[in-house]
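Quick look at the format.
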Amino acid sequence: MAEEIKSFEDLKDVAAPAALQQKREPKRDAQGRSYATGRRKDAVARVWIKAGSGRITVNGRELENYFPRPVLRMVINQPFVVTNTTNQFDVVCTVTGGGLSGQAGALRHGISRALTYFDPDMRPALKAEGFMTRDPRTVERKKYGRAKARRSFQFSKR
């Protein structure tokens, strides 16, 4: 580099490499769908989205039938609310492993990733809300000499 950068103001003036300035291309298959995988705890969600009327199908069942708790449905719809695309995409997904809460989190992660593949301009909004990051928290393993991961057996003084 011929120019020497001494401050952050100088850094702004330097142009970013051409590879970073390229616009991301949408990833869609022949049917116009975008595919992504979402994970949370032990749950894995395979998600396909396409432009549609807002219908969400989970393992061949409607969203309201598969996730009866309103909180879980709210978690799943968060990516659409953040990107202002409610009722604009049809979602077909298969979810395996874990419980309902983990599956809902995996579905949210998968929908967020699929939305960014469908339209890369949605990525900053989803990333700012933290939907693009896989939640690393999992169940802590049980240790020997203990009742559970951290719970000790009852102590008897005598």
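Next, a different chain entirely:
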Amino acid sequence: MITKLIPKKVFFTSGAGTHPEKLESFEAALRDACIEKFNLVTVSSILPPRCEIVTKEEGLKELSPGEIVFCVMSRISSNDPGKTLTSSVGCALPVDISKHGYISEYHAYEESAQDAGAHAVKLAESMYSTWTKEEPLKTFSIPRSSTVKDSGDWMTVISAAVFVI
């Protein structure tokens, strides 16, 4: 029997990590965001109809280590000392909960978390509005920013919308 994989819940998280190895800086960012125990599969930008937004703590309780978990993720890495890295996901909630909303991902160098968050919201809002011809019910973002240390170690910054099926 084939079942549809339509998420019922979503939570938002972010993290930053540093390490001499790029891959391990990504792992450290996942740990900081509390999503390192899952096999993450990135998906595009649709917030399913009737998808409930829950806290990170509530969402994590419903997931198991090793589980394949779908997410919308913004990710940026660098080992350039002093460079600021910023990631954000933005969300546009539908006016009618029987319709879908949008989640955007955005990342940039040398941009504040506030500016990246505003840009992610603008993207999600634009995708929603061009489809519905109306403003979303609500918008928000989960931005994260960090600066590469002088050691030249790799820094990775992530923001994610994590789905619970």
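The chain is about 20% helix and 40% strand.

See the schema section for token definitions.
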